[in-house]
Specification:
This is Cytochrome P450 CYP736A121. The longest helix is centred in the middle third of the chain and has 32 residues. This protein is of the alpha+beta class. The radius of gyration is 23 Å and the shape is globular. The protein has a single domain, classed as Orthogonal Bundle (Cytochrome p450). The strands form 4 sheets. It has a 4-stranded mixed sheet with strand order 1-2-7-4.
Amino acid sequence: MELGWFWLTVMVVVAGSLVSLARRKKMKRLPPGPKGVPILGHLHMLGKNPHQDLHRIAKDHGPIMYMQFGFVPNIVVSSPEAAELFLKTHDLVFASRPPHQAAKYISWDQRNLSFGAYGPYWRNMRKLCTLELLSTLKINSFQPMRREELRLFVESLKGAAGERVAVDLSDKVASLTAEMSCRMVFGKKYDDQDIDERGFKKVIQEGMKLAAVPNLGDYFPFLGVLDLQGLTRKMKALAKVFDDFFEKVIEDHVGAGDHGETKDIVDTMMSIMQSGECEFQFDRRHVKAIMLDMLAASMDTAAASVDWILSELLRNPAVMEKVKKELEQVVGLKRMVEESDLDRLEYLNMVVKETYRLHPVAPLLIPHYAREESTVDGYNIPKESRIIVNTYAIGRDPNAWTDPEKFLPERFVGSDIDVRGQHFQLLPFGSGRRGCPGIQLGLIQVRLIVSQLVHCFDWQLPNDMPPKELNMDEDFSLVVTRANPLMAIPSFRLQN
């Protein structure tokens, strides 16, 4: 009975607050949006794939759309023109990140680059990452490591090719990117059990899911303490896993001393911290937060990107043949692909762009946050609104793309549209101040892995499956992956 009175009180308070909020908002011209329901607002309209739901709803309400999730106002952006207004014209107003329970627990109180609030600390941290951790010089210093890991990867697939058995490409690629990321960030490979019995891939993926799942504590702050969904408990447990592991990594580096010329990312950050020359207070929490950023970004997004590109190539054999022919002309059949070949693979680059258009791995990016009340395109944007940029919808905008549902890499012939945030029709890495600083590294990894897989092997779907029957269902998270693993049979094609 007491519990019943508690919930009745909560509902009365929430309903009263929403009525008051609604009265205030009627005085301003908000963007159009669907009709909500008391308390929940529009939360009930989101299913297991929110990017698809928001795309569908925006078709009826326009490219700048207002939605209320609990107490939280959201502006959903679904066209290139609208994205440019929020990410370029008014970029500074929306350059922050909202409070976020998952990031609070998992990212050392949002000390990382991805979820950190905009301000002097964040600006200095981004500068540090751009100049010290993700510079062209630093990325190039890891080139021998990438070559070695790819050689081992190809050798492992040659075994399956000899036996003519299907391999789980999703799992194989995820393992490859995990090993590359570990060597780049930590300086060496760690065994899966070093982080947790679930292993690196599973732990990172759980973190991505917890960061993306609709959390009542984010939308109804007073409910956060009750943890009705059990998410806070999971976040705290995962935070401890990350903290214990990263402490071990740091201690390993402190004990090892100088690593010579090629310093991994932990070496670089520890030397900056110990020098005391950084423009802001820099301690182990910052090191661990950036380690997590680097590990998750270089591992999960790269693996998902490769997965979707290979899926589209297997679904479109004519496109696959064109990529093969280009590789034969540029590289020949007597060696593997080198990083120096990548810029000459023009058709492959079109395939990568087209896949990012149809399958952006972070379709809703990470929400931006209105630091102040503003007016955009004649609409009032309330302070503390979340700005959700739906790159999935933008990639399917018929005003920006001809035949948007078709996979047509040739649409980029003679086009200067790229993925680096300057062209708002294609924003897989975001744009503006919050654009991903690791674009260069990400594109090298993705193109190198895809080109190697296509160049070294012919691929066949198992059980003589027709290409168009390949399942392309999505599994929503901060990084959207295939719902089902990509299985294919390799045949080695290089001339030994």
